[in-house]
Design goal:
This protein is α/β, with parallel strands linked by helices. It is built from 10 helices and 21 strands. The model has no long low-confidence stretch (mean pLDDT 96).
Length: 350
């Protein structure tokens, strides 16, 4: 696929649907799994009021349970479709294909390899999801490679403005020691992959992600585009906090960043909630992990005094959508929240 004739749409562009996977792996939320499916029911209820929802389920049993819980939660089942596609985990953001639009406005899937964040051995089902979805929808798909080798890239590692600029982090994509995605690949190599597969002409490299993030630096907990020229960046005001230095360094990088037209992006700061721990582990609680749907923006909340402030900032940035807080204290124990759990299916341009 010629990168000059394709582009990765921004998340705020029209969706045909949103994808999720119904929770089934209790090991991802030790001691909290009973509540997680009700959190998902609430997420789906709000999304189904915005657009069609497509849910991956591991078996007919899980589909029956999902239907029952969604009915009790008053979700609109007429706008929900189930796909019998098995997964290891629910984080569809990271293993579903990227969907780009070609020069005629039609969609193609770009399949990146998935190695479970270079951390977990059980990921064969998740890695097979792109092919299974593309077969189910009869959607053409290409595989991303660099010099003939498959390229690993999770959806949460990048965030684009739809016009050729993309945010990512060095900690995630360039690490060669801790959680290694693509051994030996440099920033220049990855930018070549972005250009050839996603139509991205301008990569903005931030440094490190937030504390507690077991993906080792996903940008969707850190910094997000909210329109073609504006990003939100989480900021920590406490110099003693583990996030303070990394977030200040990212702020400095953004001060020198340029968009695809060589202009400077506008930077809006989002607060950070107080550190959140469970069983001795700090979890990656961040308001940046919001999801932009057609009519709503779903934002994780953490029973924190900063919840209201973060919701207010995002409400001003998305005046054409309802900004809805979703209680995520239990959900984040799985080391992800709303953006991690969702994946947009862009509408074709006609």
């Amino acid at each position: 696929m010629n990168s000059l004739h394709s582009r990765l749409p921004a998340e705020w562009e029209p969706h045909e649907a949103t994808w999720l996977a119904w929770p089934h792996n209790a090991r991802d939320w030790p001691g909290k799994f009973a509540s997680i499916r009700w959190v998902y029911a609430e997420i789906v209820r709000h999304l189904a009021a915005s657009e069609p929802v497509r849910i991956l389920v591991n078996s007919p049993r899980w589909e029956r349970e999902a239907r029952q819980m969604l009915t009790r939660a008053h979700a609109n089942l007429d706008r929900i479709a189930f796909f019998q596609i098995s997964t290891n985990r629910v984080w569809t953001r990271d293993y579903l294909p990227a969907i780009v639009l070609d020069e005629s406005g039609q969609r193609r899937a770009v399949r990146f390899s998935f190695n479970a964040w270079a951390k977990y051995p059980d990921h064969d089902l998740d890695a097979a999801v792109p092919e299974r979805i593309c077969r189910a929808l009869n959607m053409p798909m290409i595989t991303a490679t660099y010099q003939g080798q498959p390229v690993v890239l999770e959806g949460g590692a990048v965030d684009g403005n739809g016009l050729g600029s993309l945010l990512t982090t060095e900690e995630c994509l360039l690490d060669q020691h801790v959680q290694v995605r693509n051994p030996g690949l440099t920033a220049k190599n990855m930018e070549s992959v972005f250009r050839d597969t996603l139509g991205v002409s301008n990569a903005i490299w931030l440094g490190r992600g937030i504390a507690g993030d077991d993906t080792h630096g996903h940008v969707d907990d850190l910094c997000r585009f909210v329109n073609p020229r504006t990003v939100v960046l989480v900021r920590e005001n406490n110099p003693a906090d583990a996030n303070y230095q990394a977030l200040e360094e990212n702020r400095e990088r953004l001060e020198g960043a340029r968009l695809e037209d060589d202009s400077r992006p506008e930077v809006i700061f989002l607060p950070m909630p107080a550190p959140l721990y469970f069983e001795g582990f700090r979890v990656p609680a961040s308001y940046a992990n919001f999801y932009i749907a057609n009519r709503v923006v779903l934002v994780p909340t953490f029973n924190d005094v900063q919840d209201r402030i973060a919701l207010g900032i995002l409400a001003e940035l998305f005046p054409d959508r309802r900004v809805i807080g979703i209680h995520a204290v239990d959900l984040v124990w799985g080391f992800g929240t709303l953006h991690c759990a969702t994946h947009e299916h862009p509408a074709a341009n006609r």
